[in-house]
Amino acid sequence: MKIAYILNTYPQPSHSFIRRELQALERQGFAIDRIAMRPAEVELVDAGDRAEAARTHYVLRCGAVALASDLALQALHAPRGFAAALNLAWRCGTRGEVGRLRHMIYLAEAAHIARRCARSGARHAHAHFGTNAATVAMLCHAMGGPRYSFTVHGPEEFDAPRALSLPDKITRAAFTVAISSFGRSQLSRLVPHGTWARISVVHCGIEPDVFAQPAPMPPIGPDAPLCLVAIGRFVEQKGQMMLPGALRVALDRLQTDGSGAGGIHLTLIGDGPLRPALEAGIAEAGLTKHVTLTGWLDEAGVRDQLARAHGLIMPSFAEGLPMVVMEAMAAARPVIATYIAGTPELVEDGRTGWLVPAGDALALAKTMVEMAATPAATLDRMGKDARARVLARHDIDTEAAKLAFLIGGAADHRPLTQPPGPGSRTASDTAP
After folding, report:
1. Do 238 and 187 reside in the same domain of the chain?
2. How many alpha carbons lie under 13 Å from residue 115 in its C-beta half-sphere?
3. For 301-318, what is each residue's pLDDT tens digit?
């Protein structure tokens, strides 16, 4: 079965979960046409990302003349559908900050994709994120293209759902995917109760074989500091600006409490617009010997850093359900994370890690101190519990099978039912 995946920017270093989902669907027997509006603006350091970029069709590279031609041809050959899509784009363009002009560009992109899908025989289109990729998928369907679905991750979609026309996108879609029960609850707020059955939970997934043999927990004590890793783009929502102040407080407390703990070292993996401010905060707090910034690493590099660490720290202000939390847990490492969005569905406070209130630097510092004083045997047990939990809930092939079931039903116009199997919403909510 041929399907189209519609994306805005693909691949990106922080979106490896999409690549894993695509490849898992291909193992399910789907042929997938990767369609993105544009390539990433950053250098792709991972070989897997570079391979995906070579397989992806980039719409905007076709140029304005080609897109205008596709728009005219679509209007000529399917005038009623084109008129419906034009009206929809115009109405959506009245909301939010994007405006009508941008929606006319989306309309041209949708016409290009509709014609591409007709040539390739794609029977369904799936978009990731409820932003412009889902808009293009919706307009493509309105003008006669295949039925569509889309995955909502958050947090951006939840910040301005009506400006993004999320209610329209959900009600017109064959089905909508949320990556957590929290996400499903937020989408359910936007549409009538009768639509809720078409909103399903399909988790982002990990590849268990990649984490088949987790490294032993490193020693910890007076001569072996607590090693923490933070992974993600340096942007406001990820909360990394909390870390210098919290780490400074934690180190000062360790020096005065006589616990015998050997200090803390933090490795920051990633990059982004807040890097200069973050570097300045690290220097101002006198932490240059206690913090390492690596930039973006490929997946093997991330796994290596997790193997060297005792755990992950994720001080986010807003999230969907972070992939890096899943990867750290699969590597048998406990997690310090904030009690927001879908994170508490995965991280169990006191069993697989620690949960702290978002924005509370003192709570973050206190938890780092507590973790630094925790024996390696206890951290090892927590890491093993974390690994068992994430493998039970986030195996990529199990989750892809759920998505494949939904796509197959949509393409065949079967009544929507919840995906079967151990990864279903009911079973995953009660997994160990």
Report:
1. no
2. 20
3. 999 999 999 999 999 999
